[in-house]
Amino acid sequence: MTDIAVQRGPLWGHTPASQKRRRDILVAGKKVFFEHGYALASVDRIAEVAGTTKRTVYDHFGSKDALFAEVIAFASEQFVLLLPSADTLPTPLAEGLRLFVSQLTDWVTRPDSVRFQRLVIAEAERHPQFGQVLYETAVLGAEQVLADYLRARIADGQAPDQDAARTARLILDLTINGARVRALMAVEGAGVSLDSVAVDLALALVMGRTR
Length: 211
Description:
This protein is mainly α and about 210 residues long. The protein has helices spanning about 15-40, 45-50, 55-60, 65-80, 95-110, 110-125, 130-155, 165-175, 175-185, 195-205. It is built from 10 helices and no strands.
């Protein structure tokens, strides 16, 4: 993980007021970065929207780069929390897998999500740490939810023993990425309904029928 990605938590202050101020800055940062992009977003404007001072923003985050990385992580964590958890997905494997993939596809192709991904991708060549934070927080976060669900289905005998983390990654590569890429490229019809063939292949992968 990059140095900037591990700078989680306030640089000073652990009081409730300090933690609230930090969250307010993250919310303001997300709004301003979305509106203006990374390059044109100013720390002065973020401080104004957060109702605080530029000095306070720097006290909490150290730099604009670090603030943007934290905003990416903050938004990504919010995204993962919107997904169904392993415990709330239906217990029948086929039903649970289909629901998770369907909801994840819906979320990653929504306009706000696509805009956020484009914002990070636009800066990734010059600031690869930003893409790393998005990957480690959003992508791996979604994979972790699915891996936890698969482990539960292995434990209750619905699926054979396997590397759940590896299978989860393969499933999401198989079922999600096509729709996500089409949405990123503004291809008409990017938000089409879930491809049942892809889910059937994913289920076969879980059950070991593709080996």
